[in-house]
Amino acid sequence: MTEHFEVVARDGAARVGDLRLADSLRTPAVGDDVLADAGSLWTDERSVPEGDPERLTVLPNRGFPRGTAPEVEDAFAPDYPDVDFPSAAVVTPDTAGDHGADAYVLSGAPGFVGHGSAFVDAVIETRESIPDDTALVLSGVATPENVPLLAYAGVDLVDADRAVVRGTQGRYLTTDGETRLEDLDELPCPCPACATSVADFDREDCVDHNVNALRAELARVRQRIGAGSLRDYLEGQSRFQPWLTAAFRGFDQQWGYLEERTPVFRSATMAATTGDATRRVEIRRFADRVTSRYRPRFADRPILLVPCSAGKPYGQSKSHSRFQDAANYRAHKVSLTSPIGVVPRELELTYPAQHYDAAVTGRWDAEEVRFVADVLARYLDRTDYPRIVAHVPDDGYRQVVERATADRDVPVEYTVDGHPTDADSLAALAGALEGERSIRVSENERATVRAVADYQFGEGAGDDLFPDFETTGRHPKQRVVVDGEQMAALVPEYGVLALTLAGARRWVDSDVPTRRVEIDDFVPQGSVLAPGVVDADRDIRPGDEVVIEGPSAFGVGRATAHGAAMVESSRGMVVQPRHVAER
Ligand SMILES: [Zn+2]
């Protein structure tokens, strides 16, 4: 039960929180002013400290070295006293659990901060053991350089100890590392401590600057979490220090921890500028869903493989308009792109297909070719297209197609000579598809609804939820109507379906696994808050469509937290309902 901490925004494992004491502190933050260490009381008097309503009192503790046998720790571990003032309990990854505190201080941080895999393991083990809506505190380690990674990992509070110590040692800290004072030719910072000449800048100033720099970087981090772009920043910033890059990649390898916490869509544009982009959750999730949940409805037609366009959604770009004009919609258009992989026409609006911005050089590296070819091969494995028409230039795109189709019976017909939009290439494309039947607009609209349902709700969902329906409204603002009643609307900004109450009832009655949030006996007026949640499916991800069910209410809305957080939290908004009915 956390009385004094609330998560107010999430992005992946990173969170913006409110530490509610006399004054509210927005986290991730430097907590020196609010942390009161009562640790020594344990050995002296073994008594419970008095506490202070204006501070987080760190409860008496005894640190154990990592790897101490659990029996030994159990025998000596303090009983975490049940206190009614704001408190933080000291834990190791092994002793972490719900001890009733508002915050948890992970002991031994200087031992693992600086070591990629040790850091990843310690934070994940601890964060997964303590309740989601409690603050995770790392002491004695934060610098302007490492604090973006700490926040990305799920750390909420740090202290300025290390920044201060390095200042007294004459080390000037920046987001890209540290410099010895004597090596500074000028002061690359506009903070008050740096408003002097290098000659007059002493170690006391350096301490002040280091703390200012740490606070400024935390402000940037909070801003980035709110905007959904901390990952994009870290892909670049973590390069300055090998251990940061190692830890950053370590989190990508620990797929589950980040995946559970990563939203299914964002409004922010994703900057895909490094090789690490192919390993981020959003990219792998899209590739996985396209090759496991999605099923093409035009697999009896030729597949038309085309390069992605810089303008998005692809369908509205100049190059794709010309492809479709030449092809006369006589094939199922599937775009190839790094870093996303394969984007069928029906999913061109679906996050992140129209939300990424890649660095285009015209040259593909081996890793990009391998990734996209692998996704295309998996895609083709589940389909039975009679023809493969590849309207791709003779570069990385062609390598992708050759690699993905090497062992297939269906021959590949290449139609590009030079550039894909050259007149000769377009004529060859038109010629290749001559005689095939065009896909009608209405066919495409229906296929889009079902494809998005597959992608969003699971394999087979499109046919199970909507065996028979009409679409109204102009693409992409389509509405799904069954027997005159609206079931869902396509949200063009994210390419997802938003269900109506009737649509939600249909979901509950179908064979498609329903993502449910069970609530207490009340009718939500506005947001569903964590205390009202009785249970929630653990496979709910932030942004997911969810059904809200309680003794008095039935509704549908969008999750703002992952399922485990809904259940573990005692504060904060967890579902944004769209429609609710009494029952
Ligand atoms: Zn400064």
Kindly describe this structure.
The chain is an alpha/beta fold and 583 residues long. The protein has three domains: 248 residues, Queuine tRNA-ribosyltransferase-like (TIM Barrel); 163 residues, Rossmann fold, CATH 3.40.50.10630; 126 residues, Archaeosine Trna-guanine Transglycosylase, Chain: A, domain 4. 33% of the residues lie in helices and 22% in strands. The chain is built from 19 helices and 29 strands. Strand 15 and strand 16 form a beta hairpin. It is globular, with a radius of gyration of 27 Å. It binds zinc ion. Zinc ion binds next to helix 7. The site of zinc ion has 7 residues, from helix 7.
What is the end-to-end distance? 30 Å
At the fold tier of CATH, the topology name of the largest domain is TIM Barrel
Structural class computed from helices and strand pairing: alpha/beta
Number of helices: 19
**CATH-level-4 superfamily name of the largest domain:** Queuine tRNA-ribosyltransferase-like
Strand order of the largest sheet: 4-10-9-8-7-6-5
CATH architecture of the largest domain: Alpha-Beta Barrel
Shape: globular
Question: Mean pLDDT, as a whole number?
Answer: 93
Small molecules in complex: zinc ion
Number of strands: 29
**Gyration radius from CA atoms, angstroms:** 27 Å
